[in-house]
Each structure stands twice: as C-alpha cells, then as structure tokens.
Amino acid sequence: MNADRGVAVVTGGTRGIGLEITRALRADGFDVAAVFHGNEDAARMCERDTGARTFKTDVADFAGCQALCEDIEKNFGPVRVLVNNAGITRDGVLHKMTEENWHAVIETNLTSCFNMCRAVITAMRDRGYGRIVNIGSINGQKGQFGQTNYAAAKAGMIGFTKALALESAAKGITVNIICPGYIATDMTSAMKQEVLDSIVRQIPVARMGRPDEIAAIVSFLASEKAAFITGATITANGGQYMA
Ligand code: CAA
User: Fold this and answer.
1) Which of 146, 171, 179, 182 has the most CB atoms in a 10 Å sphere around its CB?
2) Is 203 in the pocket of ligand 1 (CB under 6 A)?
3) pLDDT beyond 90 at 39
4) What's this model's pTM, rounded to 2 decimal places?
C-alpha cells in the first residue's frame, strides 16, 4: 500500500458492492484495508485486482475489530475512512425464523457497525478528521416480506448513523448512510428467480443497480469535498422507494 490519502477500511470489501467500493477508493488514492470473513479466494482476487490489502476478521466480534484496527493504525497509518459494508441475509418469514438467524443478521449487519466505529472513533476524534459511510438498504427504509431480521438491522443502522453524526460533527467526522436498492451481486442472485423478477418489475428504471453505482457515492462521501454532508440517508434504488 503506497497511496497518499491515508487508510480506508472497507468491511466486506472483497466481494459484491464492497469490492467496487475498494476499487473506487483505491482509484481515489487511498490505501485500502478490505476486511473479509470467509472467502479466501475472493480476497486473493481482490488483492490482485485492486492492490488493496486484505484482512480476515469477523466484524461481529468486538475484540477482533479492536485488534484489527490497532494493527492497521500501527502498521499502515491513520484510518481516515471507514465503510461499514459487511452484511448477510437469512431470509424467512418471522413465524419460521430461528433465533440463530435473527442474531446472525443483527450481529453481522448492525452490531458490526458499533464494533468497527468504536474501534476507530477515538483516533478520528483526536485527529479531528474522519469519514464514516454505512451501507444500509432500501429494506431498512420500507420493510420487506421475509426480512424482519435484515430490515431491523438496516433500519437500526439509520438511527445509529444519525446519532453518531451528531456526536461527531464538531470533531470533523462525517457519518452518513447509503441505502441501495436491489443491486446485482451474489446476495441478490441467491434469491429465487421468480421472487427477484417480481421485485425488478417494481423498479421504475427497470433494472437492478450495479455495485459501481453505489461505490461512486461512497467515493464522494469519503472525500474532503463532502464535509457539509453528515447524518444523511442517501437512497440509490432506481426509484423503487422514494424516502
Ligand atoms: N407479499 C405478500 N405475500 C407474499 C410475498 C410478498 N412480498 N412474498 C410471498 N408471499 C406469500 C406467498 O404468496 C405465499 O403465500 P401462500 O402460502 O398463501 O401461497 C407465502 O407468502 C409464502 O411465500 P413463499 O412460498 O415465497 O415462502 P418461502 O418460505 O418459500 O419463502 C421468502 C419466503 C424466502 C422470504 C421469500 O418470500 C423471499 O425470498 N422473499 C424475498 C426476500 C427479499 O427480498 N430478500 C432480499 C435479499 S437481497 C437483499 O437483502 C439486498 C438488499 O439490501 C436489497
């Protein structure tokens, strides 16, 4: 890593939307630490493809996130940007949802934001600068059949973003959330084709989004130019839900 804008940490940064965020922030001149959990092949490909460094950590684990961020700050430099993108789905109607699938989604998607922000916020406050971008979802704004766990986690991220933005504004740190709609990634391609088709029919621009369309927004919010935007919820969903 030899870029000159400091370090950007992207969770879930080696696949899907996160991979394009990693690529965009590398193009912007950041050293990118792309955090992944399971898929080693994707991590190696991400390193080769983008020049980012990858780190294996479970973002649902508080101590693991602390250790990760200490390692990055010590060995690679100050974290100027944090993108909380890691997320999973465990879809199912509530009357069939297991306790395990509830907790897995809440911990990986929402508690991870606490874990990662808590690990970087003190240093950002001390330095008087930071950019935190959370990746929410249209389904945290409007709800979605079969996603009580995911919708709750993503809606929780919106409140978390606004509260942390208030706490951080006077310290030069902005905190924003992007709510993508249905984006063409492994996550959406795992859905039953007929369910996905019926959702795509509800999108006014008549197509799914692309990961790079979300990454472009992150790139702007992570820049110094975006200093006056904080606590914002930015929707990018092809007109499917106008919040
Ligand atoms: N509204 C109302 N009723 C619905 C419905 C809907 N949207 N979807 C299904 N139903 C009804 C069905 O008609 C069916 O009714 P009957 O039993 O009377 O026929 C009943 O609910 C059960 O439906 P399924 O057969 O589909 O039930 P299932 O258990 O096989 O599947 C499910 C349930 C997995 C939740 C499935 O409905 C589903 O995949 N839904 C979509 C969930 C979704 O959008 N996930 C997004 C993943 S990507 C993502 O999350 C990224 C992001 O941020 C956007």
Assistant:
1) 179
2) no
3) yes
4) 0.96
